[in-house]
Amino acid sequence: MASTENTHAQNNSSAPCVEDDFTPSALGTKEYWDNAYRRELETYKDIGDVGEIWFGEGSMRRVIQWMQKQNIPLHVAILDIGMGNGVFLVELAKQGFTNLTGIDYSIASVELTRSILEGEDLTDIKVQEQDFLSLSPELKGFDMCIDKGTFDAISLSPEGQEMSKQRYVTSLRAALKPHGHFVITSCNWTKEQLLKIFSPGFDLVQELPTPRFQFAGVTGNSVTSLVLRKHS
What we know:
S-adenosyl-L-methionine, alpha/beta, single chain, methyltransferase
């Protein structure tokens, strides 16, 4: 299974925040992800390979270790935003978490995740095709929402980047309970930028440690991982 911790990471150093949106990319389109997950679904059916782990296995371990240190109850309602191949849901289930939901706007992602969950005998996990920017009313009341790369992809949308970011924040507020946690991992945004985007409405709980690099005398992080808490 491929690790994308470094291959997808951009320079995320402690430089001043850049206000402009990113250059639009195919990574911000539904067509790109539909095609990508169709290929991964075919590969899984052929050889049982679940495909790429977004940001690598290290990104999953960091989040799970934080949850364990905080003694997060195993029954809490968790939403995986943009679940991809569902591997993170599998890892959460293996750690004993029992109230798991995954969504993705790609039907191929949903089919792939369901196939992987069936192979792991984890059919109690709820998965559905859902665009987080147009969140269904029933998808609310979560204790925790987790995002590994979905907000990054939205930030690369060829159409309406600023509006998409605002809709994301609105959906996140609707999905989470008061004082619920939001864990985001990003290779496009710095800590300072993410805090600006998600405030007001969220407080920083903790910045999770991520790999660091040094280039030309400047030290920074290739990936940002934050735990935020929603206000009441």
